[in-house]
Prior knowledge:
Blueprint: H1 13-37, H2 43-55, H3 62-77, H4 81-94, H5 105-123, H6 130-144, H7 147-153, H8 164-179
Helix pairs in contact: 1-2, 1-4, 1-5, 2-3, 2-4, 3-4, 4-5, 5-6, 5-8, 6-8
Amino acid sequence: xxxxxxxxxxxxxxxxxxxxxxxxxxxxxxxxxxxxxxxxxxxxxxxxxxxxxxxxxxxxxxxxxxxxxxxxxxxxxxxxxxxxxxxxxxxxxxxxxxxxxxxxxxxxxxxxxxxxxxxxxxxxxxxxxxxxxxxxxxxxxxxxxxxxxxxxxxxxxxxxxxxxxxxxxxxxxxxxxxxxx
Length: 181
C-alpha cells in the first residue's frame, strides 16, 4: 500500500527560510505596533527572535515552537484588540518554518495569515477603515515577496473568497501574490 499523499510536494529548507525571511519582515512591522501597545510583554519578541535565528540557518527547534505558542497565548490573553492582532501576526509568522508541504488551503493560510492579522491590528487604529490599510499592507507584502515566496505559494491551491474579514484579506493577498511577478 502506498502511503504517499498526492497533495504532498517538495519544500526544502532554503525555501522555508525564504518564507521565514518574508514572514519576519512583516512580523517586524507587527512587532513595532505590538510593543507600542504592550512594552512590558516579551513573548512576541521572543517568537520573532527565534524565527530570525531559524532564518539565519538554525534548525526548527522545540524552542521556536514554544515561542510561537507563547506569542499566541499572549494574543489570547490580551485585553487590547490591537495588541492581540499584532501578537497573532507575529506568532503565526514565527510558525512559517513549520508549514506542511501539503497542497491544502489550510497550509496556505499559514503564509497569508500574518499579513491579515497585521492589517487587522493597523485598521483598528485608523478611522479610515480596513480598505486603505489593507491596500497598503498587501502592496507592501507583495513588493517584499521574493520569486521563491510566490512560487511556493503557487504550490498551494488558490484561496476561495470565503466569508469574514480574515478570509477576505487572505484571498486578496493570495490573488496579488499569484499575479505579481
